[in-house]
Amino acid sequence: MSVFWFMSMLNLLILWEEPGTEAMTLNSRLLCQVSGRGASGGVHSHQRSRRSWVWNQFFVLEEFQGDEPLYVGKLHSDTDKGDGQVRYVLSGEGAMSIFSIDENTGDIHATKRLDREQQAYYTLRAQARDRRTNQLVEPESQFIIKVQDINDNEPKFLEGPYTARVAERSPIGTSVVTVLATDADDPTYGNSARLIYSILQGQPYFSVEPKTGVVRTALPDMDREVRDRYLLVVQAKDMIGQMGGLSGTTSITVMLTDVNDNPPRFPQSYQFRVSESVLVSAVVAKIKALDLDVGPNAELDYRIRDGDGAGTFSIITDQNTQEGLITVHKTLDFETKSSYMLRVEVSNRYVDARFLSAGPFSDTATVRLLVENVNEPPMFSAPVSQMVISEDAAVGTDVGSVSAHDPDSTNSPIRYSVDRESDVECYFNIDSHSGVITTARPLDRETVALHNISLLATESLDQSQVGKAVVLISVTDVNDNAPSFAVEYETFVCENTKPGQIIQTLSAVDRDEPEDGHHFLFSLTAEAAGNLNFTLRDNKDNTASVLTQHGGFLKRDQLVHFLPVVISDGSSPSLSSTNMLSIIVCTCDVTGNRRSCSHGTSPLLAVSLSTAATAGVLTCVLTLLGVVIVTVAVRHRKREPLTMDDERGIRENIVHYDDEGGGEEDTEAFDMLTLRHLNKTKPTHQDQDQNPQRLYSRTLEYRADKDRVFQEFIRDRLTVTQYSTMTVN
């Protein structure tokens, strides 16, 4: 009776859910199942004569929670006479664990609660066997028990909660986001999985399409600057939203993105104070306009529209802070102008054409700049001056003058001075009151051609205020240097040299710099003009050539020849110097290359009298000392001791030169007693070379007790003033 009752409730439930369709089909099936059960109970009898299975597809309702097993259906064979000879056997999915069968009647029951979402149907096999023989009375047959769905699962939003963005001021109906819910119930049966969407929170700003879940804007002109985010709650309900359906919800955070719908605005006019000593390009003021937009929509550009300070100041935009930075474009001077006015304009860098009708996206503001006075140092009329002075100017000669003034209104008196760090050797002075620059010591262009000195101007009332200027003083040239050999020549002549052969080409240098260039003249001294060994030829190109007069030079006759060369600079008045050229006799091969010139020594390089006169005389003395030793050993005679009465006469002829060459006048210093031998020997030939000023000398070793012998020999032989030729063997 309870089974019939349940089947009645099931029929009523199904008919209520979907009247006239699936319920009638199911009802007919259930009636077939009931009729099968009634047949086994004797209520009805089958008219079929052949033996066969009698059942249809079985259905069982999920989530049944009754106290007794749930009746599913009945298996029955027409061979079953109801006498207990037929035994029914069930196998397959869930047999004997979920489903049980009465082996006598064939009734099938569900012993456990079923869940369609876990398994929607079960496939089983049925057998009817003879109880005595256990033989099949019907072939094994397969059937299905389908779990019937009920609405036991609510919709779920698997991707929630959602975050969405939409531009502010979007028109009504602009799509924001699409939400999607799922229902685990059977979508093919009834309305348990048919969903309807609705908004529980977020109206009237947004709406949702009931069937698709598309969320759209519901109000126009939503302003981000007023409210920039909204929280929506969307519901999904099954059973097509009807009463009794299950529902699920999700949240949506909607953020309004910015559009450029707000122009920049200056909040005020501005006034700043600026020191007149501020450097050019320095930032002296900052202004900032307000823009309610954000990001690129709030990027600004500043520019100066007009004003009397438009050429003195400039403005740039700080891209990080969106401020306008006012900088100094020209030097400020309080005494010249003490205030400036600017009219500054600000505008959006990017403008949205959709909102141009809202008004101009720019604004202007007035900026007043007040220049503050500071105590400034004196200013020279020219920061850099150039002056010229001759190198032969006398001490105290005026070079030029400078002037400075106090730019402040106090107009303090100025005192001038030279910065001695720039004029360490004190070449110049300046009058502290007049600013006149004068020479303080002799000048030499060849030493310093350009003087770079710094002048200071100090306020008398405030000595901490010091101005500075640079004066470049060029020293012009005068002809005060004689020319000399360009290099120290090492000249040789081969023993087998032929007459007229060039053995040396001479060139000269002069520390002076004449405007039309150098024009050197070369000649021999008057004493050397009749030289029988060598001659000098001026090449007229600032060079000269030394040529041989004859051939057949012999080292044993004379190892070194000395040739005095006079070099004149050709200026007016002209300066000249005598330069001694040493020529050594060498043994050469057939090609003219030197093989040997002396016994392990090389000839003395040619030097001018102006730089080596003293060294030459000392060399001669040392050479003569060696000769004295030999002479004394040979003659074995003793003279009275030498006295140094004439020492002063000897010393006065040893002249020290520290200038650049004195020309022919230098030769007059060598008016000294000529050293010569008393013993006369017949020379091999007459030699017209000049007396050497420097000779190669050998290092002599002697004892202190022989000094008197040396003095006696020198005193005895310093009697003649000149001689023409000296032979060194």
TrEMBL record:
<keyword id="KW-0479">Metal-binding</keyword>
<keyword id="KW-1003">Cell membrane</keyword>
<feature type="transmembrane region" description="Helical">
    <location>
        <begin position="604"/>
        <end position="634"/>
    </location>
</feature>
<dbReference type="GO" id="GO:0005509">
    <property type="term" value="F:calcium ion binding"/>
</dbReference>
<dbReference type="GO" id="GO:0034332">
    <property type="term" value="P:adherens junction organization"/>
</dbReference>
<keyword id="KW-0130">Cell adhesion</keyword>
<dbReference type="GO" id="GO:0007043">
    <property type="term" value="P:cell-cell junction assembly"/>
</dbReference>
<dbReference type="GO" id="GO:0016339">
    <property type="term" value="P:calcium-dependent cell-cell adhesion via plasma membrane cell adhesion molecules"/>
</dbReference>
<keyword id="KW-0677">Repeat</keyword>
<keyword id="KW-0472">Membrane</keyword>
<keyword id="KW-1133">Transmembrane helix</keyword>
<keyword id="KW-0106">Calcium</keyword>
<keyword id="KW-0732">Signal</keyword>
<feature type="domain" description="Cadherin">
    <location>
        <begin position="266"/>
        <end position="380"/>
    </location>
</feature>
<dbReference type="GO" id="GO:0044331">
    <property type="term" value="P:cell-cell adhesion mediated by cadherin"/>
</dbReference>
<dbReference type="GO" id="GO:0016342">
    <property type="term" value="C:catenin complex"/>
</dbReference>
<dbReference type="GO" id="GO:0005912">
    <property type="term" value="C:adherens junction"/>
</dbReference>
<keyword id="KW-0812">Transmembrane</keyword>
<feature type="signal peptide">
    <location>
        <begin position="1"/>
        <end position="23"/>
    </location>
</feature>
<feature type="domain" description="Cadherin">
    <location>
        <begin position="158"/>
        <end position="266"/>
    </location>
</feature>
<dbReference type="InterPro" id="IPR039808">
    <property type="entry name" value="Cadherin"/>
</dbReference>
<dbReference type="GO" id="GO:0016477">
    <property type="term" value="P:cell migration"/>
</dbReference>
<keyword id="KW-0325">Glycoprotein</keyword>
<dbReference type="InterPro" id="IPR015919">
    <property type="entry name" value="Cadherin-like_sf"/>
</dbReference>
<dbReference type="InterPro" id="IPR002126">
    <property type="entry name" value="Cadherin-like_dom"/>
</dbReference>
<feature type="domain" description="Cadherin">
    <location>
        <begin position="485"/>
        <end position="605"/>
    </location>
</feature>
<dbReference type="GO" id="GO:0045296">
    <property type="term" value="F:cadherin binding"/>
</dbReference>
<dbReference type="Pfam" id="PF00028">
    <property type="entry name" value="Cadherin"/>
</dbReference>
<feature type="domain" description="Cadherin">
    <location>
        <begin position="381"/>
        <end position="485"/>
    </location>
</feature>
<dbReference type="GO" id="GO:0008013">
    <property type="term" value="F:beta-catenin binding"/>
</dbReference>
<dbReference type="GO" id="GO:0000902">
    <property type="term" value="P:cell morphogenesis"/>
</dbReference>
<dbReference type="GO" id="GO:0007156">
    <property type="term" value="P:homophilic cell adhesion via plasma membrane adhesion molecules"/>
</dbReference>
<feature type="domain" description="Cadherin">
    <location>
        <begin position="77"/>
        <end position="157"/>
    </location>
</feature>
<dbReference type="InterPro" id="IPR020894">
    <property type="entry name" value="Cadherin_CS"/>
</dbReference>
<protein>
    <submittedName>
        <fullName>Cadherin 7a</fullName>
    </submittedName>
</protein>
